[in-house]
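Progress against Task 2.4 (sequence-to-structure conversion) is shown through the following example record, which the project officer requested during the mid-term review.
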Amino acid sequence: MSLPLTLPPLAPQIGPVLETLSIVGTALFAASGALAAARLHQTLVTFAFFALVTGVGGGTLRDLLIGAPVFWVADPLPAIACVAAALLVWMTPRHWWSDRALDWLDAVGLAAFAVFGAAKALSFGIHPFVAGIMGVVTGCMGGIIRDLLAGEPSILLRPEIYVTAAALASGLFVTLAALGVPVPVASVIAALAGFALRAVAIAKGLALPGYRRG
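Structure tokens generated for the chain above:
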């Protein structure tokens, strides 16, 4: 027996605020991918490739799962934003980017993408619970692909708060939408909450406890 959809009339249409979150998330994730390539002293081609797969990786998987046209194939703007971010990082001096710049860019992109991913899933009639999961997939998958390409331990294998921040952003957005909060307001509140949690985790080194047997 399937669970009933509780948000059919509230499923948000993708408006200016959500579109802004999407392009901001794409560009910032792309920049974090380019920074990962910079750490490895790679070529401009590698910069662009890292930026593209990081910027669109999560959204691509989301669209394939919910049966939507892949967003950057239907609209070239996200891919252009990724290449532009790669060029920006390539052309600026290395000392402009602190060692924590990747983490902070990733934190903003994570929160923005998690909210947009949940909203887009809702707009395609996906059950709210699953829509929240789609937000997490959208927010986290690009970073996971980036880390794998860079040969770094995946964020999933580190105890720091990351997926939890994406879950907070997407889950809070779905909840606020269900309560009737206007979509633009719910989007901003949820994105700020997800970013705040990730920011505190970065600044304070917060992490979830690991499994202990016995």
